[in-house]
Amino acid sequence: MKRIIAVNSNCYHGFGLDEAIEGISAAGFHYIELTATKGWTEHVFPTMSFEYLDTVRDKLKDAGLIPFAMSGHCNLMDPERIPDFIKNIRLAEFFGCNYIVSSIGEAHLQDRASADDATLIRTLMSLEPELKQRGLILVLETHGKEHGSGERIAPIIKEIQSDNVRINYDTANVIFYGNTDPCEDLERCVGEVGYVHLKDKAGANDSWNFPAPGKGNIDFPRIFETLERTQNDCPFSVEIEFTEKGPKDVGEVHQAVRDSAAYLSDHGFVL
Which residues pair with 34 in a beta bridge? Predict the structure, then answer.
């Protein structure tokens, strides 16, 4: 089954976007998920100058990388963060993205507000016109203790009933936050999944240990089989977050991205 295979620039957390572009392109990938996550990885951001952002577009084109998605996490339960998220939506359009990724709560900042499902659903439905106008699909990441599994997010997606709002299934987050088996959880929500962060998990469930796909404990062949069997051809975006110590240098990140490319190629995927 043909699908987009990308790398999240967040793999290069702590390093610059130029290094991410270099490493992802050299590994043989043709798609990139740009990261615009406030307070964490701001490889691109709405407050950056047009001149700089336009230069980024040129660098991506020169490297043969298509910016098909943007990681623009905001707390969608906090009314004060919705204008920030709309700016991220417009930034995603600027780069020609088809997808924008967000957790429901903040990804790496402290949540300042929470909301019940009914309020959250109304907020997400209010974003639909903006998403349609910009030609974007919002994919909600399995993230955080409250929304850490696909089974938990799927009823929200079903209630919204929009092709512009789907699940971003993060294969490792459902272990780290949801303490659940991703293979079993995916079976329960695969119909609502529109995007997958391919992230591996090593060590204890609650340890920050996310090596390159194939280097941890997740049964990715079973994940692939479930998606193939259900004819779900959603994009994959590789995400590597290493351990709490982080990578020793950018060379280690480059190698992990190359390892990811080799693993996916070995399993029949065309980059």
Answer: 70
Encoded tokens for 129:
């016109």
Determine how β-strand 31-37 pairs with β-strand 5-8.
parallel
What's the number of CA atoms in the CB half-sphere (13 Å) around residue 150?
25
Instruction: Report the distance separating Cα 134 and Cα 4, nearest Å.
Output: 20
Tokens linked to 33: 């998920």
pTM summary value: 0.96
Task: Write the DSSP symbol of residue 124.
Answer: H
Residues in contact with 262: Cβ distance below 8 Å, sequence separation at least 6, in sequence order: none
- How many angstroms separate the CA atoms of 102 and 90, rounded? 14
For residue 1, the model assigns a pLDDT of: 61
- Tokens at residue 78, please? 């906090």
Tell me the mean pLDDT in the region 95-121. Answer: 83
Tell whether the model's pLDDT for residue 89 goes beyond 60: yes
State both tokens at 161: 């009933």
* Residue 3 DSSP SS3: coil
Domains annotated on the chain, with CATH:
5-266 (3.20.20.150)
Interatomic CA distance for residues 45 and 228, integer angstroms: 35
Q: Are strands 137-141 and 66-71 parallel, antiparallel or unpaired?
A: unpaired
Among 166, 216, 227, CA closest to 194: 166
